[in-house]
Amino acid sequence: MRKEALFPPELPRPRVAYSPAVKAGPFVFVSGQLASDLSSGTPARATINPQFPHHGSDIERQTRFIGENIEICLRSGGAKLQHVVHFTNYLTDPRDQAGAARALAACFGGTPPPASTILVEELPIPGCLSEIDLVALVPEAGQQIEVLTPAGLPAPLPTGLDGPPLYQYGVKCGSWIFTSGLVATDFSEAIAADARTTSTFPYYGENGRLQTAHILKQLEAVLAAGGASLRDVVKAEVYLTDLKDFFRVDEVWKEFFPEDPPARTTVPVKDLGITGARVAINLIAFLPGKGQIRRTIHTNEAPTPLAHEPQAVQAGPLLFFSQQMATDYLTGVPTEAKLNPAFPYYGSESAAQVNYIVKNIEAICRAAGTASENLVRRRGFYTDFSEFFTSFATWGKAFPSAPPASTTIRVPQPLLVPGCKVAIDLIGLIPGAS
Questions:
Q1: How many domains is the chain built from?
Q2: Cys-Cys crosslink for 391: which of 54, 57, 142, 350, Cβ 3.0 to 4.6 Å?
Q3: Is 321:427 a contact under the CB 8 Å cutoff?
Q4: Banded pLDDT at 51 (limits 50, 70, 90)
């Protein structure tokens, strides 16, 4: 299996160092797509006609524009929309959720595949309302993408909502299971009864802890529908509306993942789109076939995470990282990732942090038997866009050719380690592994 960076001629060339899509064997990773032509901002066909302002909505037109570009990216990698196994929709305004859902249902011809929808502070191009990235998996001979319908879980269709369910709970293809990003709702009440404290006993529980346990039990049911369990999870994404919940989440995490926990990325978000929702989680599970392996990666040449997560996990040919930040998990942001306070204008703090992160990524890749040039997807969660270009230019120096697919968004500050300006989520390829 090898990595192939894809630059479809129908799409404009990226303005910074990323590939619109990357193919790695049966997988196609598509960069975050925005309703922009990268020259004029948001083009006219992705906005409503100002002469007819009540005929349509900007979010629906932007989502359709994004959908067209996604199809182009997928086609360049030999995939189709029906092969999408998970997508994430980053929205800037919660009021756009309904319009985006309608447009996505039309794009996918019904209920979309597993998805995560989160509300963020800002996207890198002003005027853009949504950014969507995704993973597609083209079934090999004798395989198919199987929709998982877990017993006992309600259809993802909130009371009073017209149209198809918002998403599929999960899909399985070969050794892989991808789940949607779930919040602790039963779709009749915003937050399910067993996932919240009550006004009568407000101190006999913690909402972050209760919601995390509820979600993980739901995800157990999704995995069970595919013949898997939490022991098979290799990657988790956790979104929190309040980082004060992280300790509670981690305590519950230890209960559900007592040994060999999955790689994990945890980032703050503005909102999760449901009143009272504090936590959203989506998972990737791997059921090793003959000759395939799953192993936890560790090296003393990179910092060891402070929480219950490894540096990375290998699952067959893919390498899943826990979030990378400019921290040694001992002193916060270490000296080598800071500017000399006596010379604050002789450098860039964001560039220094990215250089520190790249060094650690390279060490983890070496420990896994691969190299940073084999990264296939990057997500950058920034707290400040003022040095976005400088930091991305620094990142690009590590990838003079064939950079990974990339998504960039701005999230609320601080990150899990205050002082860190960016958290980077990564997937790599291990050539030669099956």
A1: 1
A2: 350
A3: yes
A4: confident
